[in-house]
Design brief:
The structure is a homodimer.
Chain A: H1 2-27, H2 34-72, H3 75-113, H4 116-152, E1 164-165, E2 171-172, H5 174-216, H6 228-272, H7 278-307, H8 315-342, H9 358-381, H10 386-394, H11 399-412, H12 415-445, H13 448-470, H14 475-518, H15 532-573, H16 586-657, H17 669-712, H18 715-723
Helix pairs in contact in A: 1-4, 1-7, 2-3, 2-5, 2-6, 2-16, 3-4, 3-5, 3-6, 3-13, 3-14, 4-5, 4-6, 4-7, 4-13, 5-6, 5-15, 5-16, 5-17, 6-7, 6-12, 6-13, 6-14, 6-16, 6-17, 7-8, 7-13, 8-9, 9-12, 9-14, 10-11, 10-16, 11-16, 11-17, 12-14, 13-14, 14-16, 14-17, 15-16, 15-17, ...
């Protein structure tokens, strides 16, 4: 086993080393003119300040949770939780840092070379730092947990992989609790990063648009708009740091869920009499880690292939190629790992229907499903296809029909991804059981380093465009960054489809582990929705994502309104701003966004963390199981609706701006209607949707850790005991 | 037993007799001036024409379904299906007919008496015809099914209440299939009435508003607007006929589900060894019918109490009083029925925890839950409370924030009703088992005659206002009808909360019967969502209501756009219309709405009917069970969101129009933003929300009828059999 873990350690270090190389390669590039330098520095200072504040809040939360875990579960769980928190915050922090270095250098590359290929390379090199850090940090943390708390403390020994009573008399399986703790650490950071970043970015964006575009009628990123720097800071804290922690969390959640599931499957195998050898159990636990390691190595090659190419004229094609190459190599590397781990050992008890290749087929189904779901998101949100074009045409009939049609588009777009998820789950299950479903989640996320790199390149290019505009660079520079940005919009939509698809599968895998935690292994695993407690949980759980989303939207619009007031105040008090003779006060706007986001993020974040715990202590594990399934189903739908409606409104507006509808270009009534659609879509696609991805996973992870306690102590059991 | 059924027969005939009395009392009132007569006649002719077309489509659908039922299940089931279809279409037709007589007479009463009390009485008397017909027709049909197919054909004999093979070798329980068939008949009519009416009314309304209010800036119901008569026709076919069939279907669904459940509970009781006497089984089957009969008699008294009062100055209070009186008398009457049926007989095997009163407590929980859910809807949608006021204030910040805030309000409003449903389900279950949950649904709907009367009075008053405006009556007349209409808006919101709450419980009760239909009675009832087939079903089922809603919204906006084109065409070709020198062509607009609704209603209606059947033949009963629970959860949320967001936008706009926000009254930018919000909300609250109520019930009812066939024949079983 140690030898096998060294492969994963090697992969994570390789990924991090390549990330470091790309970091310094980007950083040593020139920043360009003094004005560019100044603007970039303002963005960087703003982003750093926000992250510093946010991490202070997080530090307190993490310490409290760690103390609770140490007290109620075990100190090892608390330590693993801390490792998770450190890894997740490190990845987010490094990724955001390089993004704030890369943005200005991308603008400068465009200025100096006036070529799309070389500019794309700088942007993608910057993005790859985030992607590689996500893969590298997540895997490094996992390897540490396995090495220190698994091998080192003997927790991977057969006798440690069964239930033990801790000092409070609570049943815990030592090592699976360590894995859950690690996943929880990543989840908590991701939750705050996503919500905080999501509120920040959209408050600034909406605030800038509502006054700038709609009232003062000045273009996007115009330096006369006081909120424009805050808007650019938002891209970095929301779309970069938030997205990175989000996918890191999905990645870790999927891997841990599959490993934990292996332990529970061994109980079931023993209870059913089929039995499972210790070797097989260890291999099943290691397989998701090694599969992901193979994926990370594949991504390094995929990213390298793009960065080492001489000519690069079609950015969309080049990025797709890098992603598909990474995915293809992952399947090959995964095949090697599969044969290495499962070749020639006794597979009985694992429930594999297709022999040694079964778990690999499960992962493959996940990869295929991910690619399909991404393609569907592209179909609904790209102006190259009918739905978005129809939406753009609805703008000719006014604002109301633009909104109505966008909502209808988002609603209708839920079915196709759900069909794919449904079919994927059924096939993965019939090939390799519940383990196959968990491996589908791992598979979908295994080349996360590539997808995050592509996703991060988008906001970096967007920022570069902003800097170009604010420093009044040549129009050609802006043309290049705009092309890159618009490609980034499509890749972002695909990435969102991917994030919710993988999030849903990861949440389901975590839920299965959760159910195993309190179900008797000798009986069939149950999540019986006709049990009234579970059914009530499912209905209430179904309402939770709606409550959470409503709170997020209100948080964004509250912060955005403050921004609107401030921008209006500046325009009123300093009329010189609009004619360019006075400089606006960017700093106050940045502070408003920061304060707004920090103030508003707490309630929704605590809701996500505390609901499963409170519900568990009130009505026990079945109630929480109901909540988990209800909220997972609702979240999948709401996240798809939000992402696709928002994406379509955005690209519909761009379609009109491009002049594609004759007689209704920029400045027309149709354009005004489309701008309203885009503004409505903003908090949906960039705050609600992404936060829901985490919402379902953090609830499952919290439940998985807390179930040991509330399975033993809850109000319902007390009442029922008293009644008898 | 026959004697007990006579009570129900008496109640239904009493209700229908009182409905007939009110019908003719209203009809013999004077219609007013020639102009009023002419306009009313145009509305009546338009409404009748639409219903005639719609019923032609329905006739074909009903014949086909009846033939299929006769062939695959039994001819008795087909007959009961036809009885259901006749009762439901009769109730919708009579209610709509009286509404088109009452509207002009309400306007005339206001004109002659200039008093709110006497005007209210005419409107409520008209509305009560619909309410009493819903209760009376539904109950009459049930009694016929019980008398003819139960007692008459001996299907209520113990030997008929177990599974028999029909000529195709399919297992059916003869009498429960009759009940399911009856419920299905009501469902199919309700589905088409709701969808057709919902598309018609909102296409006309949106079309009228989009050009009239937004472009030509003429007030609502202005006779210069060519779409204005179509808009008034829409109120009758959508808000009257559609609503009536909808609640009739919920009512029948809840009663049948409880009766069918009783049969399955007897199997479980026998399998568990507890046993159940034939007397108890018969009483459990009759109880929901008699409880509803008590409710109908209570409603007759409640309605009478309002209509016989001398002075009536506060319409809101008077209507609430009538409803609460009906609900209160229902609980008393229900208590008498409970003691009559269950007093002194052997209750073992029924799973009652609180003795003879157990099922009554279950029903009481339903009544209480219904009232709470209605109050929550009022809280979120009335301008007397914070949420709607905040929404109105958001309009000051422009259109985008109006939409965003409305969505957030709708999303947040999902939690409270779901908490009540959850708690209600748990308590009802612990008091009287699954039968208690089914009785909660019956309880919530038992005073449906009163709630539908109150709900129907709203559109009648709305129409009266339209007629007053178009016939240029005195401003005071319009003031009276406006007051009645605004009360109607609040009662409509409460009614919507009620409809979705009761619909959800009825759907769950039907689902329980569905699960019993294929589960082995000797094992615990299961809806195991961790089974991959069921889980896939739940995810796909969760997406279905979103697909369905998206289709409905697009159907409405497609029809509305055609209306917009026509109104614009008339304004362009006949410029005299706007200055009042030319008469617009109302008829073409009515035809456009009719054709649009008839054309667009088919696809969503067939989706609802065919999906459970197709899914069942593909992947068997567990898959359909997953679809049912997934779509029920999603539908509850979407329906609450739609109803409350739409209601709040509507009343937020009215709040602004009332001048409550200083400096931002009618004609201001804030008002324009609020009008967009209202237009976006229209198809949500009046098409999507109401149609979803039926969507979940019709899917459960179809599944309940079809499961006998697809449990035996489905593709999955074939494949699994081949693989072995």
């Amino acid at each position: 086993m140690p030898a096998l873990l060294l492969i994963a350690l090697f992969a994570s270090l390789l990924g991090l080393a390549y990330a470091a190389f790309n970091f310094f390669s980007v950083k040593k590039l020139d920043e360009g003119t003094d004005q560019m330098r100044e603007i970039a520095s303002a963005i960087r200072v703003g982003a750093n300040a926000f992250i510093r504040y946010e991490y202070k809040v997080l530090f307190a939360v993490v310490l409290v949770v760690a103390a609770v875990l140490a007290l109620l579960v075990s100190w090892q769980t608390a330590c693993c939780f801390l490792i998770g928190a450190v890894m997740s915050s490190a990845a987010g922090w490094i990724g955001m840092r390089i993004a704030t270095y890369a943005n200005v250098r991308v603008a400068n590359a465009a200025r100096l070379t006036v070529r799309i290929g070389s500019t794309l390379k700088v942007a993608f090199r910057g993005g790859s730092v985030m992607g590689l850090c996500v893969g590298g940090c997540a895997l490094l943390g996992l390897v540490l947990v396995y090495l220190i708390f698994g091998l080192g403390m003997g927790l991977l020994q057969p006798e440690s992989l069964v239930s033990h009573k801790n000092w409070l008399g609570i049943d815990v399986i030592p090592f699976t609790m360590c894995l859950s703790g690690y996943a929880l650490g990543c989840s908590v950071i991701a939750m705050f990063n996503r919500i905080g970043g999501g509120i920040y970015t959209k408050a600034a964006d909406m605030g800038a648009d509502l006054v700038g575009k709609t009232e003062a009628r000045i273009p996007e990123d115009d330096p006369r708009n006081p909120a424009t720097i805050a808007d650019n800071v938002g891209d970095n804290v929301g779309d970069v740091a938030g997205l990175g922690s989000d996918l890191l969390e999905s990645y870790v959640g999927a891997i841990s869920a599959a490993s934990i599931l292996a332990v529970h499957l061994s109980f079931t195998a023993h209870a059913s009499g089929a039995g499972m050898t210790d070797t097989l159990l260890n291999r099943l636990m290691l397989y998701p880690v090694l599969f992901s390691a193979a994926g990370l190595i594949a991504c390094v090659i995929g990213i390298l292939s793009l960065l080492s190419r001489k000519t690069l004229e079609n950015p969309h094609k080049a990025l797709n190629l890098a992603t598909y190459l990474s995915a293809g190599l992952t399947t090959l590397g995964g095949l090697a790992v599969t044969l290495l781990l499962f070749g020639g050992i006794d597979l009985s008890g694992a429930g594999f229907q297709a022999g040694v290749l079964s778990p690999w087929i499960g992962a493959l189904i996940g990869i295929a499903a991910g690619i399909f779901i991404g393609a569907i998101a592209e179909f609904y949100t790209s102006a190259e296809f009918r739905p978005t074009r129809d939406l753009a045409e609805a703008s000719l009939e006014g604002t109301a029909l633009t909104i109505t049609q966008g909502l209808a588009l988002g609603m209708k777009s839920c079915m196709a991804p759900c069909l794919i998820l449904g079919v994927g789950i059924i096939v993965a299950y019939y090939v390799s059981g519940l383990y196959g479903v968990a491996m589908a989640a791992v598979g979908m996320l295994s080349f996360v380093a590539a997808t995050v790199s592509v996703d991060t390149y988008g906001p970096i290019s967007d920022n570069a465009g902003g800097i170009a505009e604010m420093s009044k660079l040549d129009g050609k520079v802006r043309e290049i960054t705009d092309t890159l940005d618009s490609v980034g919009n499509t890749t972002a939509a695909i990435g969102k489809g991917f994030a919710i698809g993988s999030g849903a599968l990861a949440a389901l895998a975590l839920m299965v582990s959760y159910l195993f935690s309190y179900n008797d292994p000798s009986t069939p695993l149950l999540l019986n929705l006709i049990d009234p407690i579970t059914l009530a949980g499912a209905i209430i759980g179904g309402a939770l994502p709606f409550l959470f989303s409503g709170m997020l939207i209100q948080a964004v619009s509250k912060a955005a309104r403050k921004m609107v007031d401030e921008v209006r105040r500046q325009f009123r008090l300093f009329p010189g701003i609009l004619d360019g003779t006075q400089k606006p006060d960017y700093k106050t706007c940045i502070e408003i966004s920061s304060k707004g986001a920090l103030g508003e993020m707490k309630l929704p974040a605590f809701l996500a963390i505390l609901v499963p715990v409170a519900a568990g202590f009130l009505l026990g594990p079945e109630f929480v199981a109901g909540i988990l399934i209800g909220s997972t189903i609702s979240s999948i739908m709401l996240a798809i609706l939000s992402g696709n409606a928002g994406g379509a409104w955005d690209n519909g507006k761009k379609h009109i701006e491009s002049g594609a509808i004759e007689g209704h270009g920029k400045g027309s009534d149709a354009h005004a209607a489309a701008v309203v659609g885009d503004t409505v879509g903003d908090p949906l696609k960039d705050t609600v949707g992404p936060c829901l991805d985490i919402f379902i996973k953090i609830m499952s992870t919290v439940a998985l850790v807390a179930v040991a306690v509330f399975d033993k102590y809850n109000l319902l059991d007390c009442i029922l005991a008293l009644l008898q």
